Amino acid sequence: MNKLIVIVIITLCCPLVLAAQDQLFSLEDCINYALENSTDINRAQNDVVIQNAYLEQSKAARLPNLQLGINQQLNSTGSYNTTNSEWNRNSNNSINASLSSQVTLYNGLKLKNTILQDQINLEASELNIQTEQELLSLNILSFYIDVLLAKDNLKNSQLQLEATQEQLKYAEARKEAGVISLSDLLNIKSQLAGDKTTFIEAESNLRIALVYLMQLMNMPITNSFDIQQANIDKIINLNIETNPEFVYEVALGIQPYIQTARLNVESTKTGISIAKSGFLPSLTLNGGLSTGYGSNINSVDFGEQFSNSVNPYVGLSLSIPIYQRKQTKTQVKIAQIQTNNSELELTDMQNSLRKYIEQACTDAQTAQSNYMALLEQLNAEKESYQINNEMFTQGMINSVDFILSKNNLIIAENKFTQAKYNLIHQNKIVEYYLGNSILF
Fold this sequence. Notes:
alpha+beta; two-stranded parallel ribbon; about 15% strand; elongated
């Protein structure tokens, strides 16, 4: 019976396992998986939680606090009795309790500005999550394209290998018929061996590309992992905007790390106001209750003493800074320097963004030019190979010329495939700066 149950469970689970293994990951699937398992994003999310806690703490600082204090003290005192010339020792047990509260009425707007600064820091930390997500998505895109390129290279090498195997069959038949020489046949066999080596290398490159992608996704390495094959011809865009000035103006308004840098400037400017509040007076409202019990009052019991010894109080406390040994001046100066540093950092980020965009637009333009030029070269090499193939079949050219033509076609196909995926990659980077989706 137990064996039957095990067999049933295995039978039910196997289709699920096979389905999981057969799942092909799209670019969106890879990005989502990476985002869910990224330690960098988890740390950024933890930072948001911390900043939110600081904000809640600064908001709570506006409320009155409440403190309960209880103090018990045992006293023993010695006294000399002159009547009987003896030392006497008296003991006393006292208990004091107090309940106090205070609230800040004014402290130079320090509380208000602290809340404002914490709100800005919280918004900046939330934008940091978006920055980490976008950077990781771009890296996934790059590695995903590498896998697609490796797949195409493997496909091309397989077609080349199959074509050479067919050519070898024809060459052997023509050799027996005396149409070609032994040297021509050996050249074809050598070409076949080289194509086999190329095919093996292409398989290895694909495996390595898949491993790199899984590692970036923080996915355990598995042989069952594979990606969806995209329709590359539909993805290619030859009319993308590559004007650096236009792209830069758009990116300035949407890039999260630029917005974070701007918020950091606002935060440090608010820090100046917080530091300057140290020059201003502070006003605090305080009040409370206190009571006590002493064992030296023998005629009054514990409860009666506590209930009748209650002393309420309320008052205002005004603190006016006169001389602070340059503490506040130093804090203001440091806050001003921090503001200047954050402004310089914003300038550096804007300049870096401009450089990245100029490079991205130039690379996209170059990629498009290379794509068009290599497309023409590939078409020419295809026509040349077809002619040479027919001539070699008829024995009009030797194997050296034929193999040279074949290798030229292989080189042209490899260069064109590389240029095609490079064009897609460079265009997707520009689209990212324009705020467009990088998904296929």
